Amino acid sequence: MTHKEELIALLCEKSFQYSPEPTFKLVSGRLSRFYVNCKPTTLSPRGMFLAGHLVFDAIKALGVRGVGGLTFGADPIAVATAFASELNHQPIQAFSIRKTRKDHGIIRWVEGDVHPGQTVAIIDDVATTGGSTIKAIERAREEGLNVVKAVILVDRQEGGLENIRAHVADVTAIITRDALLAHAETK
């Protein structure tokens, strides 16, 4: 089994639910037939290992200095990716983007060892409309970071990737809702 296949199975076990009728309330307030909460997976040891290696594989050729996104969904993936990068002798810094700007000390959006002018990848655990990823891209750029790619762990296939592409051309999803649904239906 590949890392991707194993992560799909783990997500189906810990993070994905679906219903024939729209019963899951989304952040937008609308109801959906699909629910994806990646945190039980990305905070588990095996899920962290798999997500970190898959995201690292998606960004390793870019020469990025950092990887991160909006707290809290991106945080475990960023840390796992940084760890995988060190294991592969190609260190990439993890960083986190705050939901509200720090208003004391050094006032900033981004926490981590990344600096203006450096090239980074923005990540997110799930994309529906892409709103949180776009917010992360905007805040990273406001801090002077050069965002060259966005990587989404799970694309709900509801237009998010297309919306994100309006802000950064290179957007990748590791896993799609259809892949999760196909796996879930075989069980």
Outline the structure in words.
It is built from seven helices and ten strands. The chain has 187 residues and is of the alpha/beta class. A six-stranded mixed beta sheet has the order 7-6-5-8-9-10, with helices on both faces. A two-stranded antiparallel ribbon has the order 1-4. The chain has a two-stranded antiparallel ribbon with strand order 2-3. Helix 1 (3-14) packs across helix 3 (45-59). The protein is globular, with a radius of gyration of 16 Å. The two termini are 16 Å apart. The model has no long low-confidence stretch (mean pLDDT 94).
Tell me what portion of residues adopts beta-strand conformation.
Answer: 25-35%
Estimate percent helicity. 25-40%
Computed structural class: alpha/beta
Total strand count, please?
10
Taking all Cα atoms into account, the compactness measure Rg is 16 Å
Strand order of the largest sheet: 7-6-5-8-9-10
> Total number of helical segments?
7
Q: Outline, from the CA principal axes?
A: globular
Mean pLDDT across residues: 94
Main features:
alpha/beta, Rossmann fold, six-stranded mixed β-sheet, 187 residues, two-stranded antiparallel ribbon, globular, 39% helix, 7 helices, single chain
Q: What is the gist of this entry?
A:
The chain is of the alpha/beta class. The chain is 39% helix and 26% strand. Helix 3 packs across helix 4.
